[in-house]
Design a protein that fits this description.
With about 190 residues, this protein is an alpha+beta fold. The protein folds into two domains: about 55 residues; about 130 residues, no CATH class. Strands 3, 4, 5, 6 and 7 form a five-stranded mixed β-sheet that branches. A hairpin with a 4-residue loop joins β1 and β2. α2 runs antiparallel to α4. The chain starts with a helix and ends with a strand.
Length: about 190
């Protein structure tokens, strides 16, 4: 009987030893998995940071002034949000940066009310400040309209632009340039 008892004790001890071995192995595996998970979270967080740093470039058109004339110039704007015609137009409305020697092509008080695109036609709706706060002549009015049209037609899905003021088609913004019909890009 003592042999049977010794054998049972031996089996119990072997069982306990194996249990401790498997528990220890599982603890090591858990630690390894926690470390891998931590590294994965770190890598994901870094990827998200890098993704947030990716900048898009919008091309807007501002006015260059010389002693004798005004010209429209393309200007690159870095934006961190998705590049769309709406975001590009908002960049245009913000005008030049304080460090730039350009002039705003659209009155700074102008608000973008809406923008829709259908079959190549962008219909852009501005607040009435685009008219009431515009204080230029025929050349500056032409440059303003060309800046709006050129900024929007930088996007291949836009072929022409209809400008609205407070949701209405208007004949002109400053009384010099007819805009009651859709306008196309002028590369001159």
């Amino acid at each position: 009987m003592k042999r049977v008892e010794k054998f049972i004790v031996f089996i119990i001890l072997v069982g306990l030893g194996l249990s401790f071995y498997f528990i220890n192995s599982l603890q090591k595996e858990i630690i390894t998995l926690k470390n891998e998970l931590s590294e994965t979270y770190y890598t994901l967080a870094k990827a998200r940071q890098n993704e947030a740093k990716i900048l898009n470039h919008a091309v807007i058109f501002l006015v260059k002034s010389t002693p004798t004339d005004f010209f429209l110039v393309p200007v690159n704007r870095e934006i961190s949000e998705e590049l769309t015609p709406f975001t590009a137009l908002n960049c245009l409305l913000l005008g030049p940066l304080p460090t730039e020697n350009w002039l705003a092509s659209v009155p700074s008080t102008t608000k973008l009310i809406g923008l829709s695109i259908f079959e190549g036609l962008a219909t852009v709706n501005f607040s009435n400040e685009i008219q009431s706060d515009f204080n230029g002549g025929a050349l500056l009015e032409a440059l303003m309209i060309q800046a709006i049209v050129n900024t929007l037609t930088e996007f291949p899905e836009i072929k022409s632009v209809q400008i609205l003021v407070n949701g209405e088609v208007v004949e002109s913004i400053g009384g010099h340039i007819f805009i009651a019909e859709p306008l196309s890009r002028n590369n001159n």
